[in-house]
Design goal:
Blueprint (H helix, E strand, L loop, with lengths): L3 E4 L18 H10 L4 E3 L10 H10 L3 E9 L9 H8 L2 H4 L3 E6 L15 H20 L3 E4 L10 H10 L3 E5 H6 L4 H7 L4 E6 L1 E2 L1 H8 L5 H6 L4 E2 L8 H10 L5 E4 L15 H21 L5
Parallel strand pairs: 1-10, 2-3, 3-4, 4-5, 5-6, 6-7, 7-10
Antiparallel strand pairs: 8-9
Helix pairs in contact: 3-5, 8-11
Length: 300
């Protein structure tokens, strides 16, 4: 089966985080996705598409796009917070849009991604895993696959955090190559060792020089994105995306490769400029890499 490529509104600066720069309207984002040949996208943050499920699906269809899933920040470690209402709200959109993958980000409950994370004790981790299982079950009841997204500044960031999930939960992984690298996980090694746990992928490239500046505290994670330093178009950073994709396809991966380059926009870019330039560079690079792998008999 040929590799499936999709995109996400965050590559156009559309984010769930309040005050995350200038937010482009869906009409422009979807038109530019279509211009680049994409036919599938994540649904984006709440408020990006119309609120009613049928209206979301209709808006996507106007641009020849299919909704494949969504990134959902939710608190799962706090005994005073039930994550299921937020999950059920998101799942209500899926049937109409034809979406099949829930991407769960286990946020801290603190605004943004630059704050210190709470530390979990044994009871906290047990609650965490129970809630992951509850989310997986609720999604499965609607024919949706739930995946866990490691992410900078959330409860699952480091390699140790990820191994807690690998060992303590059956939830599949949304393999975000950039966030995992920043959190200290070698993404090439992870793709080789844990291919059976990867059901969905966010392909990101990262500048190691910028990553080290963030780790040294010279610049915040958010400001590194504002400066357009941390994440790069595919093939221009330091993540070996080719090796990762090769390992995944060789292991039989048949999920979505979602191209993501987190953006913060200062203002409304002129038509035909801005995020579309980097998105074009990434998708053209990936199509070329896939063609090369196909010539080797991989992913054909």
């Amino acid at each position: 089966m040929a590799a499936r490529i999709a995109t996400a509104p965050i590559s156009w600066g559309v984010s769930e985080v309040p005050d995350w720069g200038f937010q482009l309207p869906p009409e422009r984002v979807l038109a530019e996705m279509r211009e680049l040949g994409f036919t599938a996208t994540e649904l984006g943050a709440q408020g990006f598409l119309p609120p009613a499920p049928a209206d979301k699906a209709a808006r996507l269809a106007e641009y020849g796009m299919k909704g494949i899933g969504s990134f959902v920040p939710v608190v799962v470690h706090d005994p005073d917070v039930d994550p299921l209402p937020r999950i059920e709200q998101e799942l209500a959109d899926y049937a109409a849009a034809g979406a099949g993958v829930l991407v769960v980000s286990t946020v801290t409950g603190i605004r943004g991604y630059d704050q210190l994370r709470p530390e979990l004790d044994a009871d906290g981790w047990r609650l965490f895993m129970r809630n992951l299982d509850r989310i997986s079950q609720r999604a499965a009841e609607q024919g949706v696959l739930a995946t866990l997204h490691p992410h900078v500044g959330t409860m699952i960031e480091t390699r140790d955090d990820i191994m807690h999930v690998i060992d303590g939960s059956a939830m599949q992984i949304c393999f975000d190559t950039g966030h995992m690298m920043i959190g200290g996980t070698d993404p090439v090694d992870f793709a080789r060792q844990y291919a059976e746990r990867i059901a969905y992928s966010h392909l990101k490239d990262v500048s190691v020089a910028a990553m080290e500046r963030v780790k040294r505290g010279e610049i915040s994670y958010f400001d590194s994105i504002v400066a357009d330093e941390l994440y790069t178009p595919l093939g221009r950073g330091d993540v070996d995306i080719t090796a990762i994709v090769k390992s995944m396809l060789s292991a039989g991966f048949d999920g979505w490769f979602v191209l993501e380059q987190d953006k913060v926009l200062h203002s409304d870019p002129a038509p035909g400029t801005g995020p579309i330039d980097d998105a074009r560079a990434s998708v053209e690079w990936l199509r070329g890499a896939l063609a090369g792998l196909e010539a080797e008999g991989i992913g054909a």
